[in-house]
Amino acid sequence: MTVGTAPASPLRPTLEVVDLKTYFHTRAGVVKAVDGVSFALAPGEVLGLVGESGCGKSMTGFSIIGLIDPPGRVVSGAVLFGSSNLVGMPEEELRALRGNRISMIFQDPMMTLNPVLRVDTQMIEAVQAHRDCSRSAALGLARDALAQMGISAPEQRLRCYPHELSGGMRQRVAIAIAFINKPDLVIADEPTTALDVTIQAQILHEAQELCRRNGTAMIWITHDLAVVSSLADRVAVMYAGMIVEQGRASEVIRAPLHPYTKGLLGSVPSANRPGARLAQIPGMMPSSLDPAPGCRFLGRCSRAAAECSTMPALTTPIPGREVRCWRPLTAGQQS
Amino acid sequence: MTAALSVPIVEARDLSKRFVKDADLAERLVARLGTGSGPRVVQAVDTVSLAVARGEVVGLVGESGCGKSTLGRMIAGLLQPSQGQVLFKGEDRAKLAGAEAKAARLAVQMIFQDPYASLNPRSRVETIVGEAPLVHNLVPRAKLPAFVDETLTRVGLDPGLKARYPHQLSGGQRSRVGIARALAVSPELLVCDEAVAALDVSIQAQVLNLFMDLRETFGLTYLFISHDLGVVRHISDRVVIMYLGRIVEVSPTLTLFEAPNHPYTRGLLAELPRISYEKRQFQPIKGEVPSPLDPPRGCHFHPRCPSAMPRCAIEVPALKAIAPDHYSACHLNAG
Description:
The complex is a heterodimer. Chain A has helices spanning about 55-65, 90-95, 120-130, 135-150, 155-160, 165-180, 195-215, 225-230, 250-255, 260-265; strands spanning about 15-25, 30-40, 45-50, 70-80, 85, 100-105, 185-190, 215-220, 235-240, 240-250, 320-325. By secondary structure, chain A is of the alpha/beta class. Chain A has a seven-stranded mixed sheet with strand order 6-7-8-3-9-10-11, with helices on both faces. A four-stranded antiparallel sheet of chain A has the order 2-1-4-5. Chain B has a domain at about 10-20 and about 40-255: Rossmann fold, CATH 3.40.50. An eight-stranded mixed sheet of chain B has the order 6-7-8-3-9-10-12-11, with helices on both faces.
């Protein structure tokens, strides 16, 4: 029991990622997909992990839950979940955690749903795999889980095959399965990117509700800053395998410290005056294959200086904010 | 900026497109017994009229399956309408012949969402960009290399890339090749079908800026099809909202975002993910877009509409002017 209602409560964090490194050893060289990522997540907290394609945000999610395939490998770092370290944990123990204490939601629900099994079969299996429970009790849980995701007529949907459902409905089923065992942590990898805005809003709403109700911590991986700004408590911005900025969502969006974050915000059309030139970031993200030693944003940064050719460390210029930049933006430069 | 008095560059008059799914063997057998329901018909676009003035940017917005791409393809001349006409500079395009028909076809070019699907993977960039002007005798063969260089430079591509194949380019570069190919035949109207949807925000900002620059330099007219209201708000002078094959609202961009009239537009705007400084509560529109195979009677939106009346389920609302240049198809406006 803790005193106070602040979301950053002194509770033990649900998840703590410490200096995680996932490298892919290819014939062409070493791809440093995730290169020293650290963050912590409190119970019930939503972290938005933001970045562009290829920045390593999905690989971070996969590394946490142990889904990296060769030639990729978590080469160092720790993923502390409860009292255990998920890095190097035997596959059997990881299996017991996945779908039970930690779940994952993918962009394409057809990746999670088995096309030749009915929804009820899959949901019952998800429950019975992790606890001793009768078929009818599991079916009841499945029905409740679908109803919580805002699915009307859950009885009928349970008897459907995935192809009989619309895209939005399939994603709802996938999310219902992810939450069915009331996990401590859910990793959502761009779950609404392929959906229409009205469906996206419904799903964001329902996922937000479920986290609040169950105290589930969630990592919402997305390229869409607008989604994160309205959903997440905290934001971590990734660039070329590293977190370049982290802090409370409202503060990062209002006053970014890293030039990349500022560039990303300036690129979003809805944040700009209609018709005005968008503040574009020149160039594109460098390859993570054998990266140069300096700041990874160096080639695209308008504030680059001599010191930027060595890698900056994560600093805390303001309490609760972290930034990896030699020359972070100061008050007047942020908008 | 819009010259209201001149003849629109392109005009759709009562345009409809029906896709008919032919009956398979089982259905034909049932039909022979006299109990079948006949061939299945999707009314993708239902009596739509739309005029685009010279120099204007019209944003066409709707969720998947609303018929926006079908309408765009009919206007670009890639699909034959089932009913209605497309007028090009006041003349029915179906009645044009010979050189006039060819000129009308060249004057309207299309830019697609997926450059992987629209660029021939076996052609080099120079062939992709140079083929059409050569075939149409717009550029003599001897001057072609210089012409290709110039076209690539216009869209911000290094002419040094012209010997590459599409797979050797990044997403942003591929999308620029698609734009260069369209520009190579000096079009007057560009139909952009989700042209920036697949790009990362920072690359999307670069391409949107390019569209705005090209408009200024060449006086281009755009029909900009997108599901992303933020992008459309940024680039368009006028916005057309479609729902299940029909236009529900047409309005100047500023008016639409300040005073949307149709309940569907209001719902869409409320759900538009935007950069916000605080976490917010989502208030989604209920339900999903119904199947276009079996659309609701009356107003297509009535099953999801918060202010539906008995009349809405019976009578199709007409698109009526509610203010100068502002049209909406809703019975609520009838008073």
